[in-house]
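Repro:
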Amino acid sequence: MLRDRRPADSPAGDAAPPTGRPAVIDLSRAPGAGEAWDRPRSVVYIWAACELIFLVNPWQISSRLRVAVLRAFGAEIGDGVVFRPRTRVKSPWKLHIGARSWIGEGVWFHNQDHIYVGADAVISQETFLTTGSHRVRTDMGLVTSPIRIGDGAWITSRCMVLGGSRIGESALIQPMTVVKGTVPPGRIFGTAAGPTVLGERFPSAAGATGPDRRRP
């Protein structure tokens, strides 16, 4: 699945000298993501149309109608949940929201795996929750893990919550924070450090020439 980075003028039978360039995964051979649907293709396509009409559509202002459509496609949503316009839900049959919770405008549940939201929780505007990722060093095949958000938690605006995360009861996530892992109950959680390079994606390629110490 990894593409050879041999120079174009190198004979096919010759071993190209190490260049230090990273490998490239041939995406034409990558597995598809349909295995995460858990529903027939027809249901997935019908849901895509309903999502556009009843959820994403800013002219559709009724939270009750939005919730009713989600429930019709298998979502488990408690009483009194407020679901604002411009929201997106990839798989309603994998969405579970407790009573009286608030879902802000523009929230995106990219739930290829299950997302569990407790009661009286708040997910604010433009927050993105994704349960899917890929095998980054082999074939880019899909891997998923659920997200669990406790009762009373507040995820503020434009946060990103990654698969496998657990946010405890009444925890507060500061704006524009990336959550990966566990946030203890009752804590205020935010991103203190700025962006940084964390490591090599393909360690063997880096080892051919040693680490690159140049700053971005």
